[in-house]
TrEMBL record:
PANTHER family: SERINE / THREONINE RACEMASE FAMILY MEMBER (PTHR43050), SERINE RACEMASE (PTHR43050:SF1). It comes from the Bacteria. Belongs to the serine/threonine dehydratase family. This is Threonine/serine dehydratase.
Amino acid sequence: MIHAEDIVQAHLRIKPFIHRTPILTSERINQQTGCQLFFKCENFQKVGAFKARGAMNAALQVPASQLANGLATHSSGNHAAALARAASIVGTEAFIVMPKTAPAIKKKAVLGYGGKIFECEPTLAAREETLREVVLKTKATEIHPFNNEHVITGQASVAKELLEDIPKLDALIAPVGGGGLLSGTLLSAHYFSPSTLVYAGEPEGADDTFRSLKSGKIESSQANTIADGLLTSLGDKTFPIIQQHIKEVLVVNDMEIIEAMRIVWETMKIIIEPSCAVPFAAVIKNKDKFAGKRVGIILSGGNVDLEKVLKLFAA
């Protein structure tokens, strides 16, 4: 079980290695949505995403005797770069399994931090099997992208900061893929702002969290969405937290995600990736739920393949 003090200590532990990211507002967007929105900009975080927090917290807690063998993970992008960076900070190697289809910008980031990439087919089974082979060969310590308590407590620091800087929020909304960020957000709200309701935004083409809550068991991801950072299924550590604390999962389609991303780019003049736009798309689609409310939105990252996104906008 993760307690409030675990989150506090994780935040203190990683503080020297992360940004306390800004919170932006837009009067124009508030008028469009009928509520007060507070955007927590993790697109300005180290490695361009919130993943820097969880990876750093986990890496800092690997015993020194194990660090020499390196750190390993599988990831489609942001966690890969975050773990490569964390490994370089603690003075060891990073072995990263990535699907062949991972965005080029995210592979470039991993290599830039000194990580070693092992490519595999774009399926969860292939990622896990390749990672098993890498760990067997290198004896590296696996740091799972989301199904790891140190990662969850690190990600919880995002909402902790938001709730400290903007108290008395009526609602918080985060994207959900594997559930690390959402689990951390739920726990921070539970401990530090119990009256704040937490929602999740999820792509229609990867709505496994929505389906899992309906069925009561972890469902597999369909993995058919432009939100490439949200293609993984929940884990046995994240799912129970979500089951216990979530208010509702709000599902949006790819066209709604693209439009939300366009609004942020054009109105707020900041770059966000498709996965990052999902919570805002959910607010736009569900204006009645948030009318007149103070709502925190976690902008999870800004690592985009510009050529690909510009083609989406043009379409």
